[in-house]
């Protein structure tokens, strides 16, 4: 089988944040290629540059130097308007703090990405209801975010991230605010959606138990990649013991 071009390619990526006294180098020469369908975990201690890397990959911020390509698009060359359109068309997001719109019901929140793609209301709400049933929220369709638990809100967040079948889903500490049982449910949902449609996931975490769900763990320290290995390299016995 011929090698497919990686869906995400990062070259010589550098991100500096100017500060009053000295410039912070948050990313210092990152090179990374992520194949289609991979669940890639970005791992590392607080301040190592995980969120900064995710923000550059997802086009939320401009790199100081270097480039990011997703599919056929060099996103580091797009302007703000083009980037917004690209994100709506090709990317999904799961956030640590859920980021649901408080004045919208679960169905309306999940339907949002389809609205941006011009799907008519009845069709997008039907798709949203289907997704909510798949994440076990068939009885919470018309609830507002404040009427749901953290775990339920994150399941709405997952339904929203996957409803439009994006090529890539970015998740920054998606289980960071959840208890250990709910963490597992949420990670298993993310993985099973991604596997079903061969979607690529970039998952940021500093939680070993969550990293074990990935295919690969890329470890950052001080804005550099210090380790990059397949998860299969972790003995199955320790993986099982941690669940
Ligand atoms: N907007 C900003 N302005 C200045 N410095 C920043 C900014 N964002 C991040 N940094 C700095 O860049 C470095 C990397 O931060 P980043 O948020 O990427 O870390 P992280 O690995 O996601 O940490 P955590 O696990 O705590 O979320 C840190 O030293 C941080 O202080
Ligand atoms: Mg972070």
The CATH architecture assignment turns out to be 3-Layer(aba) Sandwich
- What proportion strand? 25-35%
Class per helix and strand makeup: alpha/beta
Shape: globular
The ligands bound in this entry are: adenosine-5'-triphosphate, magnesium ion
**CATH fold descriptor:** Rossmann fold
Radius of gyration: 18 Å
Write out the CATH superfamily name: P-loop containing nucleotide triphosphate hydrolases
Total separate domains: 1
Give the beta-strand count.
10
Helix content: 25-40%
Number of helices: 8
Largest sheet: 6 strands, mixed
Mean pLDDT: 93
CATH class: Alpha Beta
Order of helices and strands: EEEHEEHEHHHEHEHEEH
Low-confidence stretches: 239-243
Distance between the termini: 35 Å
Strand line-up of the largest beta sheet: 6-7-8-3-9-10
Folded structure, characterized:
This protein is 35% helix and 26% strand. With 243 residues, the protein is an alpha/beta fold. It has a single domain, classed as P-loop containing nucleotide triphosphate hydrolases (Rossmann fold). Helix 6 (180-196) links the parallel strand 7 and strand 8 (200-205). Helix 4 (121-134) packs across helix 5 and helix 5 packs parallel to helix 6. The longest helix has 17 residues, at 180-196. The chain is globular and about 50 Å long. The site of magnesium ion has 2 residues, from helix 1.
């Amino acid at each position: 089988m011929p090698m497919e071009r990686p869906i995400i390619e990062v070259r010589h990526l550098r991100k500096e944040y100017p500060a009053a006294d000295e410039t912070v180098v948050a990313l210092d020469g990152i090179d990374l290629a992520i194949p289609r369908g991979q669940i890639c975990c970005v791992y590392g201690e607080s301040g190592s540059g995980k969120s900064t890397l995710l923000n550059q990959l997802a086009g939320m911020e401009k790199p100081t130097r270097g480039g990011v390509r997703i599919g056929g698009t060099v996103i580091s060359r797009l302007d703000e308007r083009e980037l917004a359109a690209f994100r709506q068309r090709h990317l999904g997001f799961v956030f640590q703090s859920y980021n649901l719109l408080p004045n919208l019901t679960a169905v309306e929140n999940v339907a949002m990405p389809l609205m941006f793609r011009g799907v008519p209301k009845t069709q997008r709400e039907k798709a949203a209801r289907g997704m909510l049933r798949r994440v076990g929220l068939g009885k919470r369709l018309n609830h507002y975010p404040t009427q749901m638990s953290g775990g339920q809100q994150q399941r709405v967040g997952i339904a929203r991230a996957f409803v439009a079948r994006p090529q890539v889903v970015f998740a920054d500490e998606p289980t960071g605010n959840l208890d250990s049982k709910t963490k597992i449910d949420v990670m298993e949902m993310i993985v099973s959606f991604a596997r079903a449609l061969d979607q690529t996931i970039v998952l940021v975490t500093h939680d070993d138990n969550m990293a074990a769900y990935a295919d690969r763990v890329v470890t950052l320290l001080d804005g550099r990649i210090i380790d990059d290995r397949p998860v299969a390299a972790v003995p199955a016995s320790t993986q099982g013991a941690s669940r």
